[in-house]
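Submission sheet (multi-component)
Chains listed below:
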Amino acid sequence: MTRLVMHVDLDAFYAAIEQRDHPQWRGLPVVVGAEPGKRGVVATCSYEARRYGVHSAMPISEAARRLPPGTIYVRPRMEDYARASRRVMAALEGVSPVVEQVSIDEAYLDVSGLERLVGPPEVIGQQAKAAIGEAVGLTASVGVGPNRLIAKLASDSHKPDGLTVVTPDGVQGFLDPMPLTVLRGVGVKTAPRLQRLGLTTVGDVRRLSLEALRRQLGARAGTQVHLQARGIADDRVYPASERKSISKETTFPEDVTDPVLLRDTLRWAAQEVGFLARHEGRKGALVTLKIRLRPFETHTRSRTLSTRTASDSEIFRTAWSLFEAEPWAGKAVRLIGVGLSGWEDACDGQTDLFASEAPSPDHHDERLDETLDAIRRKFGKGYLQRGLSRRS
DNA sequence: TCTGGGGTCCTAGGACCC
DNA sequence: TCTGGGGTCCTAGGACCC
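Outcome: structure written.
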């Protein structure tokens, strides 16, 4: 049976919420992200800002150079965005029961078989857009195709507020003229390897032999690219997938050498990770320290514990000992953070894992406050408030 | 230009075991 | 004394995605 997959992508999600909630900002360039003049990037920006060449992940300093006076710069309000996201996903459940949320502003739906009930794919897509409009007053771009890749590229092809349906017969004609960078897994490193061979489009890639692709990209990636160039990709939708890791990290406003500050920040990160792990009823065996040194040199160090943990202090102690085992003392640190993973059951009989202690907010909050105080004494009140995430 | 934060998946080498 | 092949786990790094 041939499947029908729909991809839904909210338009300039964070910026659209800001413009929805601040009518006076409509029609203006709006940038959600870091504060101009400080370290950081654009999370997302309104279409008015995109006209100046600004886009997600651009350094905020560069964006500020390009954008005119009168541009609105705002810090993300993640709680509000998350609330809107939940409403959108609930609305989509009304279109098809098989919804896979892939990020705060994107989802795949399995709409196979809905044609007999609802009508052609265009009508199903319109239904999704209308449901989102009703739920949160935002627009989305929708793509429908025979698999995830085609549905995603279809939604990307007309933005904002687009609706694009690609039939199985239309797949190759749709794909061939596209730049090869649209293929999943072909990014800033892989694309030049193909471009050096004189390839530019997906059609060019399709004409290269499987053997040549595997030589260039390795067996696995080469095969995947070969299949994608023919429009062959996963056509399943996975409604719920369990997360595999929890992490917290922060980039300092200025590089840090003070070990006390590094320690306090790592303690804060460990408390955040531990709290979230307990909240989700998880314990992990693998603690990973992440550090980024000046100029932009990233390292990870990890340790597998003999028993799984969700304890703030154990996560912290492990991460700090990983730090101390390295000759990093005195070096300028740009970023520090910690992750926890390794709770998947390896058939080792640890069945009591999820009966672990509940989150302990009181204890947690008190210690967290102490740590945050230490950090904010250095960097000011606004620091370490909320995350920032890149959104289309 | 000067590069956030949260993730996933893959590769590759070495340890260790049979 | 010099030596196989395979499997699994651990660790570090990197590419990529949103």
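Remark: Residues 33-34, 39-43, 57-62, 65, 103, 185, 218, 220-221, 243-251, 295-296, 335, 337, 339, 387-390 of chain A lie near DNA strand B (CB under 10 Å from a C1').
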